[in-house]
Design brief:
With 176 residues, the protein is of the alpha/beta class. The chain has 4 helices and 7 strands; from the N terminus they run ββββαβααβαβ. It has a 5-stranded mixed β-sheet, covered by helices on one side. A two-stranded antiparallel sheet has the order 1-2.
Length: 176
Amino acid sequence: MKFSFLSYFIDNNTPVYGGYENQIHISKKSSINNGDTANSLNIVMNNHVGTHIDFPFHFSNNGKKSSDYDASFWIFNKVGFMECSIIEFPEKIKKLSSDIELLIFKSGFGINRNHEIYWKSQPVIPSSYAKLLKSQFPKLRVFGFDMISLTSKLNRDEGKKAHIDFLINNDILILE
């Protein structure tokens, strides 16, 4: 069986959308080596760092927040995984089962994570993919991928539209 990490470890050098520096501050709070009872860290970062979920509230003041979802929402019986380019995506999803509730898309762009291109020039995920996914997978609740954001710096307007189409118009959470 092959396993893949679905997330990355967060440290002070984790890339953030926009390439902003000094957005993550991890420091030692206590240390057994210093005579403290336990090892503990202070972590300061915004909610859009590392692997995270975008909720409807991110793009609508009336949208749901994480606390609006009950525990059963997070149980996925049908998970789909696909690996292809963004261009091949519309054709490749046709080969997957229509009862998928969580879809993970590996575009291969994640290999650029430690380079400027990762946050500066990622491929554009078209807003039309939200409707395409919902029609192909009516039970889809979460769509995840290996890029820093649904919004590419190459087309921020399309990114905003994509967030609204996924989160608000099609009720699909985004796993970035």
